[in-house]
Specification:
Order of helices and strands of chain A: HHEEHHHHHHHHHHHHHHHHHHHHHH
Number of helices of chain B: 18
Oligomer: heterodimer
Distance between the termini of chain A: 83 Å
Radius of gyration of chain A: 31 Å
Number of helices of chain A: 24
Structural class of chain B: mainly alpha
Strand order of the largest sheet of chain A: 1-2
Number of strands of chain B: 2
Strand order of the largest sheet of chain B: 1-2
């Protein structure tokens, strides 16, 4: 089924690309949604019947450089794909009904292609397929971003992550030497440069997931619409980081530095995201920080549960839910993006407020059903998210009304196109997790409501208008100062010093002067026939004597 | 295996016949040089068909030279001309032909001395083909030097560069390289007579002769490769060239140096050759880093492409030093894609630069208004930096894994240079794609549909080469 799904997704995407310029794009968009739904249904049927297909195509290689296209299903793979396809169907639906998206069909096509690339990545059994899948997600992400500056940052980080992965696997390949991912386990026993490989893999994962220090390309997504932010964060390059982290776990485990680096980095990311959420004034930025927090949590979860990728993908609907809640607020307030220009909305759009509360309850419930090893991580994650979210929601729904008259006059609850499926998702997640039986659910939800009411971080609102805080891009400045400026300086110095002074002036200049000297010397010799005659004889004799002396010496 | 139809001689001779046709072609008053251009294109296409035919009868698995053709040139002293190919050299010949074809797409509207340009291009092509099919030391030397003559004319006449300085540097470096190689060839002939390229690696000399001959051979090949300080002539030539065809044929010259190393270098590398190899590896790595850094800060698009070419050529050179047969095969596959990519990119960038100079259109933001150009440039740049859109991706993976295994510190510097040069190309792509109100380009400034179709064909070849580098070979 996996292979059929993969090729069907590509075929549908290609068909959609053919009609993308034509009329009735909205209808096409819904047809595409129906096709996705059908594929999901088929996958579900095959999953229930335990019909796991096998598809291997040997597409390249020679001698020990063998690689194949693997699209074989296993219960785990099918389960992961089912969850992801479900999330993708939800995103396609959301994208089709979202009024702010002008290129619905193009974006939906990108979602399908992202899922196809994810299948490639997930089913990979060798290094080449893994790298190809990851690169495909990077390339597709590039076409999903309309803004050129964001594109630029995205492709640079994508390129950096791909090169890190490429280098790590190149080192491993020579040691094993096999392309097979399963053989990577041998690296921990016979490998060299284990720390280097582990750090390169972590660099790749952090770049793709947008962890602290490598977040600029993800933060720049604020220029995108809400639906694209969701699609990008939950089906594109960051998703690849989870698969790579899982698949290359043996390489990471080979180094003693992996655990401490991972713990420090993910904790730092969580703290930074929390502070940023408290300080930010933009709903889009808040959505992005929530997604980054989700990836930090997912990586930490996979760190303690190496086989837990299926569980992490199961969290995706809950992660999407938070984005949808923020998007709903934005839509309700005539597309107003800034928290400081909202406030007191609970009195005017009660239904939206209730929906948001219900959504957060479902979100909390989704993260409580985790293995014991990951319980602490889940609790920390929930605490961080709820603290940040309570600050924003308290200012938006319960804070002092700052919205202008026009926004207040046009406040509206979401249409049934949004809330009906949303309630469906609530019911489904509630049924799936039965979270009301868990005491921790009441503790977290109660704490959230308390935070919402007392708003302990409302003082952070004073930085809402501070451009230095809101526009701060410290890491970009840091890279400019620490990396790019010295490199540019070095390049300029080398260019001037080596090319112009050493080569042009010294080597080429001296050769030119030597040839001039020889030419002028020969000219002088030609001026006087007798003198040149005597000189030539003397020169000949000298060569003869030298030769004789050398032979005698030998 | 012997050639049934003297096919190797034919692919060397065909461009020479093309020269005759081009010289005698009638000049059209409206489109001067158009007929010569057509002759050049058809000759190239005919040669590509012949090369394809040779691929069919070649044994891909065999590592030795095949389809041997031998001609007696002089009986006393005995000098023979010998041709032979393997998959590696034939791939390079095909890549040279396709690269020149891409360059021709960039000069098709040229009207100034077009006929001469086509004549010299065909001459260069014949000599370059001769060089890659040369199977003995004399043929190798003759073609190694002979290709400089048309190149000298192309750079001097059509380069539109500050002629004296650039041509002087070109002459200086290549002339010195030629003299040194000539002395080495003479010594080899004196000691062993006319030897084939496959025999050279196994020849034995005294220690002193070893140092002299290998030193001379190394210097001669290095004079072609942009390794410090030899990079200077090629950097000053490439940075000044505005004619894409001239740029491409100049940038193909380092290939001859690398090919020379691959053909000459014995395995395992004996003393004192290993000392040379170690030193050149160190200098190569430093040059890579140095050129990558300069390319990163340089604002000239041509220099950026030059820095990309240099870094990759040095990567291939270092790979060639490993002597591993698998690495060499991967270098061949990777070089094929690399040459197609840089020649296509150069042609497209030259189109933009020409518009900038002739019609005073700002190049920054040019790709926003020109969809075809934008698509082709994006694809080629992403393929160039090593994404899985061409054979470079897999083959470089293998080459880099070997280099990292031999010396991880040098390997990391090498990777850093590759990242830098990749960023340089991406930076240039985004400069061209970032919307700029001052850029007055419109749809009319885009490349024409036939040219776009040609580049789509090139992209198709690149993509297919990623799936299978020898996808076009149908075994008989």
């Amino acid at each position: 089924m996996i292979s059929q799904l993969f090729f069907s997704l590509i075929a549908i995407a290609l068909l959609a690309l053919l009609v993308v310029q034509g009329r009735r794009r909205r209808i096409w968009s819904f047809l595409l949604l129906a096709a996705c739904g059908f594929l999901m249904y088929e996958l579900l049927l095959s999953f229930r019947e335990d019909a796991f297909s096998s598809f291997v195509y040997q597409w390249g290689g020679f001698q020990n450089l063998q690689f194949s296209l693997h699209l074989s299903g296993t219960p785990e793979i099918d389960k992961i794909l089912l969850s992801l396809l479900g999330s993708a169907v939800g995103l396609v639906y959301l994208n089709s009904v979202y009024w702010g998206e002008n290129h619905k069909l193009t974006v939906n096509t990108a979602v399908l292609l992202n899922v196809a690339a994810f299948i490639l990545l997930l089913c990979s059994k060798d290094f080449v397929q893994l790298m190809v899948g990851s690169s495909c997600l990077a390339i597709l992400g590039f076409y999903l971003i309309p803004d050129m500056e964001s594109k630029r940052k995205f492709i640079f980080y994508g390129f950096l992550s791909e090169m890190a992965l490429f280098t790590a696997l190149a080192v491993v390949y020579d040691v094993i030497p096999s392309m097979n991912l399963q053989e990577a386990e041998r690296f921990s026993t016979i490998g060299r440069h284990k720390d280097l490989v582990a750090l390169l893999v972590l660099l790749c994962v952090f770049c793709q997931a947008g962890m602290l220090g490598f977040q600029n390309h993800i933060l720049d997504l604020q220029t995108l619409t809400f639906n694209r932010i969701m699609i990008f964060c939950l089906t594109s390059l960051p998703l690849s980081s989870l698969v790579i982290f899982t698949k290359l776990r043996p390489l990471l485990a080979a180094s003693q530095y992996t655990e401490p680096v991972l713990s420090i980095w993910l904790s730092a990311t969580a703290v930074w995201c929390l502070v940023a959420m408290l300080l930010t004034d933009s709903l889009k930025a808040a959505a992005i920080y929530l997604n980054l927090l989700f990836y930090a949590f997912s990586l930490a979860f996979l760190g303690v549960c190496p086989d837990g990728l299926d569980r992490v993908i199961n969290f995706f609907p809950a992660a999407i839910l938070l984005n949808v809640l923020l998007m709903m607020v934005n839509n309700a307030a005539s597309n107003e993006l800034y928290v400081s220009r909202l406030g007191g909305l609970a009195r005017h759009i009660r239904f939206t407020f209730v929906l948001a509360l219900a959504g957060i309850a479902v979100f909390i419930g989704s993260f409580l059903n985790v293995p014991a090893a990951a319980e602490k991580i889940a609790f920390i994650y929930l605490a961080v998210v709820l603290t940040g979210l309570s600050s924003i929601m308290s200012r938006v729904f319960l804070g002092r009304a700052n919205a202008d008259d026009k926004v207040m006059a046009l406040l509206k609850n979401p249409s049934p196109l949004y809330w009906l499926p949303l309630i469906g998702v609530f019911v489904w997640l509630g049924w799936a997790y039965s979270f009301w039986q868990n005491k921790m659910f009441y503790a977290f939800f109660g704490a959230f409501v308390l935070l919402l009411l007392i708003a302990p971080f409302r003082f952070c609102g004073r930085w809402s208008d501070d451009e230095d805080v809101q526009e701060a891009d410290w890491f970009n400045d840091l890279y400019q100062i620490v990396i790019l400026a010295p490199l540019r300086l070095l390049g300029r110095v080398l260019w001037i010093l080596v090319d112009f002074i050493v080569i042009e002036r010294s080597i080429i200049g001296s050769v030119a002067q030597t040839s001039n000297f020889l030419v002028s010397g020969l000219q002088k010799l030609q001026e006087s026939v007798r003198l040149s005659y005597l000189l030539m004889i003397a020169l000949g004799l000298a060569v003869l004597l030298l030769n004789m002396g050398y032979k005698y010496y030998e | 295996m012997n050639s049934p139809l003297a096919l190797l001689s034919l692919i060397v001779a065909l461009p020479l016949f093309g020269v005759l046709f081009a010289l005698t072609s009638k000049d059209d008053a409206d489109k001067p040089g158009r007929n010569a251009f057509n002759v050049c294109v058809f000759t190239l296409l005919a040669n590509i068909v012949l090369i394809w035919r040779i691929f069919m009868i070649l044994d891909e698995e065999s590592g030795s030279l095949q389809l041997i053709e031998r001609y007696r040139w002089l009986s006393n002293p005995e000098i023979n001309i010998m041709f032979g190919v393997d998959t590696f050299s034939l791939l390079l010949i095909l890549a040279v032909h396709l690269s020149v074809l891409a360059g021709l797409a960039g000069v098709r509207r040229n009207i100034v001395k077009q006929k001469s340009l086509m004549v010299f291009t065909l001459l260069f092509l014949s000599m370059a083909t001769g060089f890659f099919v040369a199977a003995d030391i004399f043929s190798f030397y003759i073609f190694f030097e002979a290709m400089l003559i048309p190149l000298f004319m192309i750079i001097g006449v059509f380069g539109e560069v500050k002629k004296q300085g650039t041509v002087y540097r070109f002459f200086l470096y290549n002339f010195l390289g030629a003299i040194i190689l000539f002395s080495a060839v003479m010594l080899i002939y004196h000691m062993h007579g006319s030897v084939t390229l496959e025999e050279i690696a196994g020849l034995k000399w005294t220690r002193r002769l070893d140092i002299y001959i290998w030193g001379a051979v190394f210097l001669a090949f290095l004079s072609r490769i942009p390794v410090w300080p030899f990079h200077y002539w090629i950097s000053s030539v490439c940075a000044g060239l505005r004619n894409p065809l001239a740029f491409i044929v100049t940038a193909l010259l380092p290939l001859t140096g690398i090919y020379g190393f691959i053909r000459f270098l014995p395995e395992p590398v004996p003393f004192p050759l290993n000392v040379f190899v170690d030193w050149i590896s160190i200098i190569g790595i430093v040059t890579m880093l140095f050129i990558a850094l300069i390319g990163f800060i340089n604002k000239d698009s041509q220099y950026k492409i030059f820095s990309y070419i240099t870094v990759y050529y040095i990567l291939y050179l270092l790979g060639a030093f490993s002597g591993d047969e698998m690495v060499l095969l991967n270098i061949g596959f990777s070089l094929f894609s690399f040459m197609l990519i840089f020649s296509s990119l150069e042609t497209l960038l030259a189109h933009i630069l020409r518009k900038e100079e002739q019609e005073d259109i700002r190049s920054s933001g040019f790709l926003c208004k020109t969809k075809r150009l934008s698509f082709a440039c994006s694809y080629l740049t992403i393929a160039a930096v090593g994404m899985p859109l061409s054979a470079i991706f897999i083959n470089n993976f293998f080459i880099l894994s070997k280099l990292l295994a031999s010396n991880v510190k040098m390997g990391m510097v090498l990777i850093f240079s590759l990242v830098m040069v990749g960023c340089t190309l991406l930076q240039e792509l985004f400069r061209l794609k970032t919307d700029n109100p001052a850029c007055r380009a419109d749809r009319n400034d885009d490349i024409s549909f036939p040219v776009f179709a040609f580049f789509i064909f090139i992209m198709f070849i690149l993509l297919m080469s990623f799936i299978n580098p020898l996808w076009f070979v149908i075994d008989e």
